[in-house]
TrEMBL record:
Protein's UniProt keywords contain Transport: no
Residue ranges constituting the 3-beta hydroxysteroid dehydrogenase/isomerase domain according to the UniProt record: 2-163
This protein's record includes keyword Repressor: no
Protein known as: 3-beta hydroxysteroid dehydrogenase/isomerase domain-containing protein
Organism expressing this protein natively: Aspergillus calidoustus
Length: 252
């Protein structure tokens, strides 16, 4: 892609990387990470491939074609077939009362149009001041939310409130995930819980957005509450259902 961009006369190159180039060690917490953090020494294949591509892009920055990389967090928004659908599916499976770990772990979620805004700002920077050239930037809503609160917000848009809460220790959930994976391998069926999903549910992963704000002028235009609502509306439309009217009751 770099060679094709050069040959076509492109005067800026913005690479869509991922926060996973740093936050990819599933056993390590990542609190308020910034661009000074090194890339993870322990990669899953997704993070490994993204880190290799990001390094290549940043190494090839030049006066003729300045480059930079953006590291978005987990995304939600129209067309999402992974995050919101998986959390919504917990309602039908009656899994919403179960809290894996403490439920207080903070993580980043980003509405997709905010990431699009960041790409435009990065391209404009590379074509003007070029202060972003050769740099990588974490991109997120800058509103860390606990994983449990995020799930509760999604379920609430579908009119569901868990009838009770039952905390499951992370180690026990991890063991259940291991057994579920083994059963899925034997039976050929999919599993709703795995070691990876347990680690994701308990992970602390949020980044500092100061560099993107200072260099690119990036601010999330769509807040987390509106982003969750519009994501749920989009899934409801695809499922052919109507969301109940929002509750007017204020939280205590």
């Amino acid at each position: 892609m770099l060679e094709a961009a050069k040959q076509s006369g492109a005067n800026a190159f913005v690479y869509t990387s991922t926060c996973c180039v740093v936050a990819d060690d599933m056993g390590m917490p990542y609190s308020n990470i910034d661009e000074h953090w090194p890339t993870s020494p322990r990669f899953l294949i997704y993070g490994e491939s993204k880190a290799a591509a990001e390094a290549l892009v940043l190494q090839h920055t030049s006066d003729m074609m300045p480059t930079c990389a953006l590291r978005p967090s987990v995304l939600c928004g129209p067309g999402d077939h992974q995050l919101i659908p998986a959390i919504h599916a917990c309602i039908a499976r009656k899994e919403t009362p179960f809290v894996i770990g403490t439920g207080s772990n903070l993580w980043d979620i980003t509405y997709v149009t905010n990431v699009a805004d960041a790409h435009v700002l990065a391209a404009e920077n590379l074509k003007s001041s070029r202060t972003a050239a050769g740099e990588a930037f974490f991109i997120q809503n800058n509103e860390p939310i606990t994983f449990r609160d995020f799930c509760l917000a999604v379920w609430a848009h579908y009119g569901h409130i868990p009838p009770f809460e039952l905390h499951i220790p992370e180690r026990l959930a991890y063991l259940v995930g291991l057994v579920s994976e083994a059963l899925a391998w034997v039976t050929g069926r999919t599993t709703t819980i795995s070691r990876g999903s347990v680690r994701d549910a308990c992970a602390v992963r949020y980044a500092n957005g100061e560099s993107a704000r200072r260099v690119l002028g990036y601010e999330a235009r769509v807040g987390i509450e509106d982003g969750i609502r519009m994501s749920c509306e989009d899934l409801a439309h695809r499922l052919g259902i109507e969301l109940p009217p929002p509750s007017k009751q204020k939280p205590e």
